Amino acid sequence: MTSAVIQFIGSIRLAIPLLLVIGSILIGATFYESEVGSSVVQQEIYKSPWFGALMFLLAFNLSVSTLLRYPWKGARKIGFAMAHWGLVVIIAGSAAVIHLSVEGMLLARTDGGPVSTLRVEGDLLEVASPGQELQQTSLFIKDNGTVVPDHLGNLSLLGYTNHAIKTVQFRDGAAIANPAVRLSLSSNRMGQTLERWLAVAPANYDRMDIGPAELQIKRVDSDQELQTELANSQQKTGAAWGTLTLQQPDGTQTIDVKSSLHQAVVLDRVNLTVKEFWPDFRLDENGQPETATQQLRNPAVQLELSTDNVTERWFIFGNPDFQPIRTQLAGNTPLDLDIHYDISADAQPDAFFKVLVDSREQLHYAAKSSKGFKSGPLALGEPVTPGWADFKITLEEYVPRANVERAVVALPVGNEGGEPALQVATAEGQTRWIPWGEPTTMETPDGSWYLAFSPKLMRLPFALKLNDFIVERNEGSESVAMWTSLVTLMEPITGELSERRVWMNHPTWFKGWKIAQASWNPGDLAQSTLQVKREPWWVTGLTWLGSLMVTMGVATMFYGRAVAKKLKFVNDLLDSPESDKQPEEAATIPIFSFFSSR
């Protein structure tokens, strides 16, 4: 019985199904990797226990098959054994590569300093709970949002999303009055409903834009002020976008910003053009001016002034705390003038919905649209039509004394944008989304939990400085031919410096680490992403040794007898009997059975 089991383990009857199963898995994994990425395939397939068991069983099959043919006499048997042991060594080396090697990405910039922090595969969760020591674990996120492992101590890991946003909620219980309301805006025509919070404090939560309209909450201190708001009787004065006042030695002149936009205005000896206007000025991520909203909140104007010999560009701000910025475009003598930007216009938008809180903490509304103005009391659950298409605004919640609570929420499925976040739950059922890369405090009845969901990082034993990043293009076109990173590698202990050149398919090695060009950013040529990988020397040695053994084994099976006869080195090897036909139980994989039967 035992002999029959051993014969089966080392037989071709086990080898063929094993090879078919492993081959099918590898083919499927190749297509799966193109969809989900290598990290998912590594964790779900190559590093999984079941795949490791299959590869171990194949190695065991090869080993038993080889041992069953002992003693290895004759060129074919020696070659057979050498090739099979080589395959076993390759399998062992592959397992070592998968489980012991270190690989990650290094982001370097020409305008930055040396970097030595490697972003390796996976994420890290650190948890400090009341009365417990710091715990941490590596996380693997599947493509369906499932987290492995699903527990860390008493904390459950419920799921993951790439689309979470930070929100603010308001809860009753503040020591002072701080009115806050939750409004819902619904439109049957657009098929959507939005919910928004407004609060008197903190700053910037008292108003927000909804397209061209504005939502606002305002506390009024007297009945007279309330009646003024409800009657929309505020007096509008001045020009819509304000006026510019030019003071020259021989007089003062005023122009209207809106009517002068993109127009050349001749003012005595100066030609003035209002080039641009931003009602809510700010700088974008590239440092270029833009308007945050269409509301007149932080207006700014760009002017160009010229005489016969001098041309200047001015930036004038409606905020009196900001001084004008003037640039000399032509000429050497600055213009002798001063400019003031006066915002005397009513900054009230053309369409708005105001929530008014009176001195008795009662709510009212005032709404304006292209259809007119309306106002009245605002009650919970009763929709108001402000006149913006078919929109209805409903008061869903009113908190007279609101505390601010900031939270992270996941966007509904199908929405884009947001940031990665991990959802966790305590043993008592309290849940929380933890934003990626931002330490978070979670208050529970037992005390405060401190959690950090962050990238998995590793400190390299050397530093890398990106000196230059070169993109070469094909002659006569804009298509990219090659991109190259010129780097300096620095060993901190010895102070060794090494200049290297890394480009596609041409990596470099330093202190046992392989550095290869991974990717680049076409929109930012000061940045380069490099792949850094380390494998223990003996792991690489196993792979090369196994390949050499397989090559020598196959060569011995094919040419060993002929070479031995010709050189007459192994007469006793040639005289040893060798069966022309091997029993089926002693065979392993088909190709070597074919060789050994010839």
UniProtKB/TrEMBL annotation:
> Which stretches make up the ResB-like domain?
452-529
Please report the record's description of how this protein sits within the membrane. Multi-pass membrane protein
Query: Is-annotated flag, keyword Membrane?
Result: yes
At the top level, the lineage of the source is: Bacteria
The biological process GO terms on file are: cytochrome complex assembly
Transmembrane segments annotated in the record for this chain = 12-31, 51-70, 82-102, 537-559
The primary site where this protein sits is membrane
Q: Which Pfam families match?
A: ResB
Alphabetically sorted, this entry's keywords are: Cytochrome c-type biogenesis, Membrane, Transmembrane, Transmembrane helix
Among InterPro entries, the record links this protein to: ResB-like_domain
Q: Where in the cell is it found?
A: Membrane
What name goes with this protein?
A: Cytochrome c biogenesis protein ResB
Whose protein is this, by species? Answer: Leptolyngbya cf. ectocarpi LEGE 11479
